[in-house]
Amino acid sequence: MEHCNNYEENGKLRGARQAYEKTTPIVLAEQLKNDAGRRKRNAEMSCPESAVAHDGDISQRAISPWAWELDVDVNRYPTEIAKAKCLCTACLVNGVQDYNYFSEPIYSQMKVLRRSKCDRKGRWRYEVAWEDVPVGCTCATPKS
Question: Which stretches are transmembrane (predicted)?
Fold first, then answer.
């Protein structure tokens, strides 16, 4: 017989909330959600035409810059995760994109809980899963 839980009754979720509270993708997700202006700016960002010295975040000073996007999945806990999106196809070398090098996402595996319907009474089953979360971008040579 399957073990079904209501969302509020699930002990895995109570423990997960505490474990996830301070992880970077979750902290950034909260910031993106609460800062509509920043989210709008990040959504509109594209690859800079030239590398410009910034005093800001490393995501904008890198030769492989990235922006943060809010990923929402109601069948995952946590439902909101910030994910990095590379802004350029190539890397910024000497102020311009150099297509001898490519901008590639860097992934970190994050433990999440996936929910699926368990019965007709509106209860769910939660199972541990691993999700690859892009956390930044780096410059790489082409694959041979």
Answer: none
Q: Which helix (H) or strand (E) holds 118?
A: none
Higher pLDDT, 8 or 59: 59
- CA pair distance 81, 78, nearest whole angstrom: 7
- Average pLDDT in the 58-66 region? 89
pLDDT of residue 39: 47
pLDDT of residue 1: 45
CB 127 within 8 A of CB 77: no
How many Å apart are CA 89 and CA 87, to the nearest integer? 7
- Entry pTM: 0.75
DSSP state of 23: S
Superfamily grouping for domain 7-48+63-140: Cystine-knot cytokines (2.10.90.10)
Contact 95, 51 (CB under 8 A): yes
